[in-house]
Amino acid sequence: MMLKPTAQAFVPKGTVPLTPVKTNSPVQVQPTTFESLGIPPQIIRAIYDMKYETPSEIQAKALPIILKEPRRHFVGQAQSGTGKTATFLIAALCSIDTRIQSPQAIIVAPSRELANQIYNVGLKLAKYSGITIKRLIPQPDDSDDQFGVGITEQIIVSTPTSLNDYIQHGEVMTEDLKIAIFDEADEQFVQTKPNYSHSLPILRSLGPTTQIVFFSATLTAISDDFYTRFLPNCKKISLSTAQLSLDEIVQFYVVFLSTDEKLQFLGEIFSRLPIGQLVIFVESNQTAHLVQSHLIAQGNSVGIIVGGGEMSGAERDTVLSQFRSAKLRILVSTNVISRGIDVDAVNLVINFAPPTDPNTHLPDPETYLHRIGRTGRYKKKGVALTFITPDEYKLMSFFSWHFKKDVLELTDFDELNPFFFGDDKVDPSQATKKSKLDANAAEFISRKKVTKIQNKRGQMETYVSFGQGGGRFVLGDDEEDEYDEEFPMDEFEQFLDEMTVKQDPSMADFDHY
Ligand SMILES: Nc1ncnc2c1ncn2[C@@H]1O[C@H](COP(=O)(O)OP(=O)(O)OP(=O)(O)O)[C@@H](O)[C@H]1O
């Protein structure tokens, strides 16, 4: 039996639904030019220098909401590579009173690489406005980067650790900021993430008049309770998981029996395909070194960026800048650069293994999405390959099911030719091969917690939880079966707690689909 999406999204009781942009809001008529967004001419001039002709969808939708007075907190979700960086930088620039020479806006990003990238885009956008920007990230050659110097720049770009340090030392006053922006907010405000203990104190230090802005491609892991507490009355733009998967990226998995086979495949790929630049994501520093040395031995230019204190900030910066300038063709990294990094020529991303949560070993769809989003940037096309072993089918099945997107099995290099050669390179619409993953998805999902509840209409509804999310299935006639979008695990559990739940151990019918 087939599962069909329902029109109405499931909203757990007691939580606040994400508010879509209302049709009668000021953004009803979507602005199609930067001028119509009310951006000052000095900033527009800089935008045109950057060759942006028209606002992206998130820019057109979010800016009028963020900049509307009186300011309100804002949460914005949009796919990878769709221009969130310029959205929040323009918002920051438009918030500055140019007569005041002190920090009025902070932008916090979860990694030094991302903070540096935001800083550099910020400099370009600010170039005609006279607005000053400072990055507070340890810089080897930056003698200003000391406590006690006094910060007069109007916009601060930093990482959670660095900024928290500056706040603790009384170097940055956050009480009266006009706007505080947190990029990749779910990487900063989910309790299990390493940044949480640094980002939360920053958030708590903000005064009541500071406008708080969150951005990410993935935000479901932040609970509505959190928003209610820290961003009361916020406006939100959100996407369903189906909307999140990037149409410009064609996704494959490749089955290998050993690590040696994976390395052999990597060794061949450059001689077989016209790859621009390639990012390979690995699970550990050790594997990063293994892959790097194998590829270097074959004459490739390969850099690695790994965390855990193994590389200094300066070393990481050097590798990324060599990759940006194409001195390095391949970058091997752990999740350190899985979010936000924007390098135009990357037309292939490889997951050396499917990403899983290191603690639970469950599939990690957010990381999968962010990683593959390093290609297919801003309307460009890209290919993502995930290497799996036979017992990892179920993980790929889960990603395919979760994002409602085919992930195809690659059995021969030639199957990639349509995506790398020809006029319309990397056109996902050519991916007609049938995915084999559906059956595996069912197998994987059926192992998880399942609960049946009778709804108000007397139908039996089946609630399924897995990993960080869950889904609702209404069991009726075969043709009428349906499911809703996934929702965060904590909402799901809260919902179950609030209901009179009848556990139904006979899930035979569910296992069938
Ligand atoms: N209006 C625009 N017109 C053309 N290009 C744009 C526009 N806005 C942004 N871009 C370009 O799109 C690319 C992706 O933008 P950006 O890095 O902001 O993506 P993002 O939404 O933050 O993605 P991620 O979720 O991966 O961080 C960049 O190279 C940027 O210069």
Question: What does this entry look like structurally?
Answer:
The chain has 513 residues and is α/β, with parallel strands linked by helices. 31% of the residues lie in helices and 17% in strands. It contains 17 helices and 20 strands. The strands form 3 sheets. Strands 4-5-3-6-7-2-8 form a 7-stranded parallel sheet, with helices on both faces. It has a 7-stranded parallel sheet with strand order 11-12-10-13-14-9-15, sandwiched between helices. Strands 1, 16, 17, 18, 19 and 20 form a 6-stranded mixed sheet that branches. Strand 18 and strand 19 form a beta hairpin. The structure holds adenosine-5'-triphosphate.
**If helices are DSSP runs of H or I spanning 4 or more residues, what is the number of helices?**
17
| Beta-strand proportion | 15-25%
> How would you sum up the global shape?
globular
Q: Give the integer mean of the pLDDT values.
A: 80
Question: What's the short story on this structure?
Answer:
The chain has 513 residues and is an alpha/beta fold. 31% of the residues lie in helices and 17% in strands.
